[in-house]
Amino acid sequence: MALVRLPLFERRISLKVYQLENTNGISMRFMNYGATVIAIETPDSRGEMDNIILSLPTPHDYTKEKTYLGATIGRVAGRIRVGEWTFPLEKNEGDNHCHGGTIGFESRFWDGEPFQEETRVGVRFTYHSPAFENGYPGNLTATVCHSLDHENNWRTTYTATTDATTLFNPTNHVYFNLAGSKENTIHNHTLTIQSDAYLPLTAENLPTGEIKNVQNTPFDLRTATPLQAVLASNHRDIQQSQGLNHPFILNNQQHSAATLTHPDTGRQISIITTAPAVIAYTGNHFNQDFTLSTGQKVTKYAGIALETQQLPDAIHHPNFGNIILQPDQPFYSETTYQFSLK
């Protein structure tokens, strides 16, 4: 097990990159800008290594492109209708608040602290968000800890404290494509999500407030389902979003939540989380907007994000769970991604 701190990339504030490696050849790179994962290299069934997430060509590119690739999202992931709460929040997507504001967690420099233990190596990122940043009350200290162990588990933990009542619902926005550089879409992947219910969306990608059963719909992913079939569905909710962009309510927290597989390479990721929901987004709106580390322009369906979190816009739906953080109730959430070969 090894942790390597790569050379610093100097900017007005230092851009720092950290590399984690385990004895099985898995390598992960993170940077302090956005507490972002910028590469994950794993072997396929033939032992060939490749980066299995969508990445930009250089760390500097993340400071110039608003892509959210691999970034920590907060204070609140997803959308909040018309930025309404006790305090007005920034409206940065039409009339709504999205992903914590124009300059959210993904566009902040975090303090990085690498660590090494007997069974894992990691890096702990901390950010101090001042009161009323993007409208959120409370001085908040958020910590995101990424670690990699000998069993090929990437564990992400989120903790936070505040000195005043505020909102908090973080996630990570990594996009997976387990084919690596061999395929530029996720059509040939299969997806499993252990969920009996999903949330339909409005045209503004906000939950309608309904909770629908997945039975007899393309949202029934309780067994491995080809993404190609889901994306080709004529179901109204799929057509409106041009793919998946939907919250799924997980059947069991702290058990397997989702599994993504690429049969041709044999690569598989299993996700276990303490969060109550996962938002599956299939890159429906990618449109040659930026260049990836492969040298190709990003295309529609180039990757899939599986964002573990509380349900979006929960502040307006009492049955969606609680995202209010109190000074005497520290926040904790944990998600583990297990890399394997099927």
Automatic annotation (TrEMBL):
It catalyses: alpha-D-glucose = beta-D-glucose. Pathway: Carbohydrate metabolism; hexose metabolism. Its EC number is 5.1.3.3. InterPro entries: Ald1_epimerase_CS, Aldose_1-epimerase, Aldose_1/G6P_1-epimerase, Gal_mutarotase_sf_dom, Galactose_mutarotase-like, GH-type_carb-bd. CDD domains: galactose_mutarotase_like (cd09019). Pfam families: Aldose_epim (PF01263). One of its GO terms (biological process) is glucose metabolic process. One of its GO terms (cellular component) is cytoplasm. Beta-D-galactose binds at residues 173-175. Keywords: Carbohydrate metabolism, Isomerase. PANTHER family: ALDOSE-1-EPIMERASE, GALACTOSE MUTAROTASE. Belongs to the aldose epimerase family. This is Aldose 1-epimerase. It comes from Listeria booriae.
